[in-house]
Structure formats: C-alpha cells, structure tokens
Amino acid sequence: MHVRWESPSRYYEAVLQRDLLGDWVLSTANGGLRNRLGALRHLALPSRDAAVKELASLHKLRLRRGYRLVASRDLPTEAATLFEAAKGRQYLG
Q1: Contact 50, 24 (CB under 8 A)
Q2: For 4-7, which contacts have Cβ atoms below 8 Å and span 24 or more sequence positions?
C-alpha cells in the first residue's frame, strides 16, 4: 500500500508492507519538493488492523495540515473508504 500527499512546497509518503518476519511496517518519508531535505521513518505495528488505523489517522493529519492526496495504490477497502470520505477536505492548491 502506497500513499503520497503534497502541499505547495512539501511531500509526504507512506508505504504499508510486511517485513521478512511477517510484521506490519509503516514507512514514512517526507521532505521538500524543491530541495533535498527530508526524513525516513519506520514504525512496526502489531497487526494489519492497527496498521490500517495508523494509515487512516496519518491521512486525516496530512489533510488537516494542508496537504492533498496525489497518489494511492493498493489501499485496503476500509482505508479507501475513509480516504474517499475525506476528499472534500483537501486544500485547493
């Protein structure tokens, strides 16, 4: 599962996947669109449900901070439903 948000000057990406041991890991990357500054973080989660909840809360936070959803791939149904419901709250860039 891969999601990308952008604001006029920054980006934020989240990738949700399983590691070699079968644990769920949420990897996030963020940075500037016009510079090379950024960060990469990994968060291990206990279950798929916890991972989907974390991804959904991350989506709400990004929208609240003025980002807009620009790409998403392989979202689980429960996360896709939440993302669709929040579409109207995206900033108008």
Answers
A1: yes
A2: 4/69, 4/70, 4/71, 4/72, 5/59, 5/62, 5/63, 5/67, 5/68, 5/69, 5/70, 6/33, 6/67, 6/68, 6/70, 7/65, 7/66, 7/67, 7/68, 7/91, 7/93
Residues, the chain: 93
Q: Are strands 68-73 and 2-6 parallel, antiparallel or unpaired?
A: antiparallel
How many C-beta neighbours within 10 Å does residue 53 have? 15
CA angle 80, 28, 71 (to 5 degrees): 40
Express each pLDDT in 10-60 by its tens digit.
999 999 999 999 999 999 999 999 998 999 999 999 998 898 889 889 999
74 φ/ψ angles, rounded to the nearest 5 degrees = 60, 40
What integer pLDDT is reported at residue 1 of this predicted model?
Answer: 85
